[in-house]
Amino acid sequence: MRVISIGLDSKVGDPARESHAVSWVREMARHVEGYVEVGPSQNGLDAGPIPLADNAEAWLLAGSPLAYPVRAARLAARLHAHKPFDVITTEDPIRAGLAGVLLARRTGLPLNVENHSFHINEPVWLQEKLHHRVYNRVAIAVCRRADSIRNYSAGQTQALLDIGVSPSRIHVVPIAAPTISPVDEATARSRIGVGPDPFVLCAGRMVAYKNIPLLLAAFRNVSTSLRAKLLLIGDGPAKAEWQRQAASMGLGDRVIWRDTVPFDSMPAYYSAASAFAAPALHETGPRTVLEALLCHCPVILTPEMGVVRSGVCVHAESAYVVAPDDVQGWTHALAMMLGDRQTARHMAEAGRARMGADISFSAIARRVVDVLQDTVREANSAAQGCDAG
């Protein structure tokens, strides 16, 4: 089976750095005849083919994000004409998904869509920016057209059913555990430039559904006698407002704000942190929680997360799972993580143990390939049925 994948991660074009995108393509390529990834370019130049493995390559496209779906579909169609593919898969149901629909219409190939978020008809996301309403319509149309959809979490399924997607086309395959290793704590603290005081780490794009105001309110209630800091990593449209809120709460230098850091710097942050906090209203993973656990960092998170639904994070056993509006519960969890390091570390080890081999890169890649093969078989059966009719 030959696969054409349309993605949104420009890092796939840098094979020298083993980013998540590059690692994923290489792992998928081990299970198929050929794998080609199309992605956006960040340097203003088209590029390709970029070899990633003996049977895998990447192509990058420069230009406007608005033009990307059309350009990606055209490039993929040319590649298909040169050496045919068996199935299309896309990284999301919006820009990449639209490119997939255009390509499927042009070539007749079956279309699989990866659904990495809870965005479809999600009120907070829809209200965040005006163009999200347009994106929402695109996502709905793409999901209705897709031959199969891969969700990261069972929590995403109802939104698809509500827009008329057949249950038989929905497949739940969780996020793969990343390849990441811990760093000695003293070394980690030196690398990231923090002092000896304990700190709670939170990292991610700063958008409304990440629910950082809850974390600020809970952290304000944590006793100053613990001498703890809250370290927030990331950028996004909500960051400036959250910084103002932190100042108005009197948190001052108890909160450290840092811009997004490279992925290969994150192990040091996880390894030095007393806990990782993920207060978002919902997440399909998140990968950051798995990364934290792999670096022996205990986690606090909310119930509507894929890692909770999959059983990796179990309240009071392998994590603290607290409702996204429970300030008192979050305050208690933060105080426990900061004040009882031994119990917190036991939770982190329990989380690591629960991850197991079932969500390794190789295991998840095989399951995704199974979904793609089923998608091809179903499409072929449907075509044969139409021919017979």
Q: How would you sum up this structure, described in words?
A:
It is a single chain. This protein is α/β, with parallel strands linked by helices. It has 15 helices and 14 strands. The strands form two sheets. The chain has an eight-stranded mixed β-sheet, with helices on both faces. It is globular. The model has no long low-confidence stretch (mean pLDDT 94).
Query: What shape does the CA trace take?
Result: globular
Series of H and E elements: EHEEEHEHEHHEHEHEHEHEHEHEHEHHH
* Radius of gyration, taken over Cα atoms and rounded to an integer in Å: 22 Å
Largest sheet: 8 strands, mixed
Trace the largest sheet across and list its strands: 3-4-2-1-5-6-7-8
Low-pLDDT sequence parts: none
How confident is the prediction overall: mean pLDDT? 94
Number of strands: 14
Please indicate the percent range of residues in DSSP E strands (runs of 2 or more): 15-25%
Number of helices: 15
| N→C terminal distance | 27 Å
Helix content: 40-55%
> Helix- and strand-based class?
alpha/beta
